[in-house]
Design a protein that fits this description.
Blueprint (H helix, E strand, L loop, with lengths): L1 H12 L1 H39 L3 E4 L5 H7 L6 E2 L2 H4 L6 E14 L2 E8 L22 E4 L1 H7 L6 E4 L2 E8 L10 E5 H8 L4 E2 L1 E6 L9 H9 L7 E4 L1 H43 L1 H9 L4 H38 L11 H18 L1 H8 L3 H7 L1
Length: 380
């Protein structure tokens, strides 16, 4: 208790140095919290953007003629819808969407009729639809070119292949083949095409980020082909690699900046600790003359560093979290809704910031405990 009282009294007496030390530790903790939160937001932003761009894993029937597939934009063969059940518990792809696609003519216009079933999420997790399209039975969602050419509007009744449907939504122009797609529920499209219980492909989102040098397509095939022998596994490389590169960039950003911040703030704390030791030369000499040993003197200085480090860690978490939540919506608009101050970072701030402050004060503390009390008192 006596040591604690001495630490508190000294910190209050030399409040300017104490506040500067708290600020130094707080800045270090704040920037680390900010960088980690920003890196997580960057990863979420990338995930959301890539989700909106489209899925990057495609599973096709074994009999698919790839030349015709690339020419037509859709497979001309099918596989059982039950295949989706075989891949629901693997670890390399999620957001699985069974679909049936065929080119058909609708009122003289060539369109891509696409039947969609609800997404299948491993472990029952639910998220926003990856394709941004959720079609109820008896309704259609049409691309912008289809809507414009055929004069279709939301809520309007339309006949397709002899059946009546309601236009649930018209999509905005994308400048891609999305503009000539017509989406319906999988069951409706299976009935229209006379292919009950059949699908033409399963699309999914790659849910791992391989390290540089690894072959992600080989990893996908190694996991998925044993579950669906004979099927063709494709990876949309550009979409997947853009996602990977964005995540690697965020990781490198955190790995480079965090040590720089820690070194600069550590030097700041060490300098303040050295100043504190210099100001307390006479006090140290008096304590040693009164019988305080080197461990007791070291405990005074390290205890002070730990105390102000804890305050700095708490302050840094608050500042870093506030800064991230303030700047986040402007930098990461898509992920802004999910940004939050992770309570785990508060725990790490309160644990690591005192250790950081103590480590930065080790050299000044060593100088204090090796100081000759006779010399210190004679100089005063």
């Amino acid at each position: 208790m006596r040591t604690v009282r001495l630490i508190l009294r000294e910190a209050c007496h030399r409040y300017a140095t104490s506040l500067l030390t708290v600020l130094a530790v707080g800045v270090a903790a704040a920037l680390v919290v900010f960088f980690i939160t920003a890196a997580r937001a960057s990863s979420d932003e990338t995930r959301i953007i890539q989700r909106d761009i489209g899925l990057n894993v495609v599973i096709l029937p074994a009999e698919t003629d790839m030349d015709r597939y690339w020419a037509l934009g859709a497979p001309d063969t099918t596989m059982p819808q039950q295949y989706i059940e075989a891949v629901t518990n693997q670890a390399v792809a999620n957001r699985l969407i069974p679909m049936l696609r065929r080119r058909v003519t609708w009122q003289g216009m060539d369109v891509m009729l696409t039947g969609l079933a609800p997404e299948v999420f491993p472990r029952g997790k639910r998220e926003k639809p990856a394709l941004g399209v959720d079609v109820a039975p008896g309704s259609l969602v049409v691309g912008s070119e289809v809507a414009g050419t055929l004069g279709l509007e939301r809520g309007q009744a339309a006949e397709l292949m002899g059946e009546s449907f309601t236009i649930a939504r018209t999509l905005g122009a994308t400048g891609s083949d999305e503009d000539v797609r017509v989406y319906g529920s999988l069951a409706d499209v299976q009935r229209l095409l006379g292919l009950p219980g059949r699908i033409s492909e399963i699309q999914a989102l790659e849910c791992f980020c391989s390290s540089p040098g690894q072959d992600p397509l080989a990893m996908l095939r190694a996991e998925l082909e044993p579950l669906l022998p004979g099927t063709k596994i494709l990876r949309r490389t550009r979409t997947a690699e853009a996602r990977q590169k964005q995540r690697w960039m965020a990781d490198r950003y955190l790995a480079i900046l965090s040590p720089v911040v820690l070194v600069l703030c550590g030097a700041w704390v060490a300098t303040l600790a050295a100043i504190n030791v210099r100001e307390r030369r006479a006090e140290i000499g008096l304590l040693r003359a009164l019988g305080f040993g080197s461990p007791s003197v070291a405990l005074l200085f390290l205890g002070r560093s730990i105390a102000v480090g804890a305050l700095g860690g708490a302050l840094g978490f608050v500042l870093g979290a506030r800064l991230a939540l303030w700047l986040g919506p402007a930098v990461f608009p898509a992920a802004a809704r999910n940004m939050h101050a992770d309570s785990g970072l508060l725990l790490w701030s309160l644990l690591l910031a005192p250790l950081f402050a103590a480590a930065a004060s080790l050299i000044p503390t060593a100088l204090a405990v090796t100081q000759d009390p006779a010399v210190a008192l004679r100089e005063e």
